[in-house]
């Protein structure tokens, strides 16, 4: 089965084709980072308009790359949520219109399920069960994954998500948008031990996370370092390194705890922050098997939606009626496959 996947939950327009026996056949991605950079963050209306402009072109490019035509598709998967309502609606209407024209099933996919299953696109996919650390700009969660659709939430953030905290600290250091990758690059030439920062919530039981206090620590330190409203280059690098180091140490402790509490020995890290090299290096010191998505599939993309959708469409699932977007959608509501 050839399944077309469409991702439009935020500011990335992703389209891919996945075949249930041949694997990923194409992957097209357009990022709107330059569009939103001058605003310092995503502008929902601009994101929706860009999806409208780019999506038809990307669908054609994905089909061409896969060496097929639309008539060869057996289903269309799209991101139904969570995400920005307007952006989701662009993907939903496009996917459902294409599926209706072709007479094939359409299926709304949970964005976070796409991230959880993205490591299955690697050459070394993790077998079930495993603990997943899902870290992105909008989500930070520990999830026990027993199979497709079998998810148990172990803990999550009570305030800022990991990627959101990275972006906010990057912004206070006057780094370009999107800030997380720029902060990680700056941290490479910094001293992570120059500033001592408190690791949040590691002294409490459980697997919940909190990064707003750590962000505040960085803000207070930045104000102390600023001269004429600007933090010097080396001071900024040291502060970025200290922040990144503290996040990595915090997640290392929590991951170790999650593995101990579940008795599992496999850990998957997924989401945009999964591309962070310092965090990967720290988690490599766990007594566990580690799995990551390929770097191209850490951030939002159509390949993960195509894969997740393919698992469900191949199992006979499809939309019933005309479901609308789910900007907030608990992962635990998903059915098993």
UniProtKB/TrEMBL annotation:
Binds 1 Fe(2+) ion per subunit. It comes from Litorivicinus lipolyticus. It is an enzyme of class 2 (transferase). Residues 318-337 are annotated as: Disordered. Belongs to the KAE1 / TsaD family. GO terms for molecular function: iron ion binding; tRNA N(6)-L-threonylcarbamoyladenine synthase activity. Its cofactor is Fe(2+). Its EC number is 2.3.1.234. This is tRNA N6-adenosine threonylcarbamoyltransferase. Fe cation binds at residues 111, 115, 300. It comes from the Bacteria. Substrate binds at residues 134-138, 167, 180, 276. Residues 25-307 form the Gcp-like domain. GO terms for cellular component: cytoplasm. Pfam families: TsaD (PF00814). CDD domains: ASKHA_NBD_TsaD_bac. Its main location: cytoplasm. Required for the formation of a threonylcarbamoyl group on adenosine at position 37 (t(6)A37) in tRNAs that read codons beginning with adenine. Is involved in the transfer of the threonylcarbamoyl moiety of threonylcarbamoyl-AMP (TC-AMP) to the N6 group of A37, together with TsaE and TsaB. TsaD likely plays a direct catalytic role in this reaction. Keywords: Acyltransferase, Cytoplasm, Iron, Metal-binding, Transferase, tRNA processing. It is found in: Cytoplasm. GO terms for biological process: tRNA threonylcarbamoyladenosine modification.
